[in-house]
């Protein structure tokens, strides 16, 4: 019984000891250091080694500055429509828009109104993140910038929308005081 136990232990222990010995010899000098002694260069090499066998990321998973530019079909773009050209150039790029709520609302009212607008946009498959920047102002961040113009068409129709700003161009809401005075 004891001899069987001894043989089993040897079968488990001996390969482990030898494999550790051989693995230590295969490691580069920087990898033999204690992890607490690693400097920035050692950590960078470790990260590169870690990512070595990873599959490459899909283009939409890459950071925006590494993504390939979207292919623009110039035949589909109307040269007399600068807004259409701008919209096509923002396809697949992050874009921020500023939305101003009318009638001097409180911060809580702005929160509720813009949350409702964001939900409506999401329900129409327009993904926008929303950030309040003032009591009556919010940023809508679009991961696909071309969606900002579709969102603009929706937002300017809303009764509480004073204006929306896209790429430094201000679009007045149809119910804003400025538009009513022009009529």
Automatic annotation (TrEMBL):
InterPro entries, sorted: MESD (IPR019330)
Keyword Endoplasmic reticulum listed: yes
Keywords: Chaperone, Endoplasmic reticulum, Signal, Wnt signaling pathway
Subcellular location: Endoplasmic reticulum
Gene Ontology, cellular component aspect: endoplasmic reticulum
GO process annotations (BP): protein folding; Wnt signaling pathway
Gene3D superfamilies attached to this UniProt entry: 3.30.70.260, 6.10.250.640
Annotated signal sequence range: 1-19
Pfam assignment, any one: Mesd
Entry keyword Chaperone: yes
Family: Belongs to the MESD family.
Protein's name according to its UniProt entry: LDLR chaperone boca
Biological source species: Phyllotreta striolata
Phylogenetic classification of the source organism: Eukaryota, Metazoa, Ecdysozoa, Arthropoda, Hexapoda
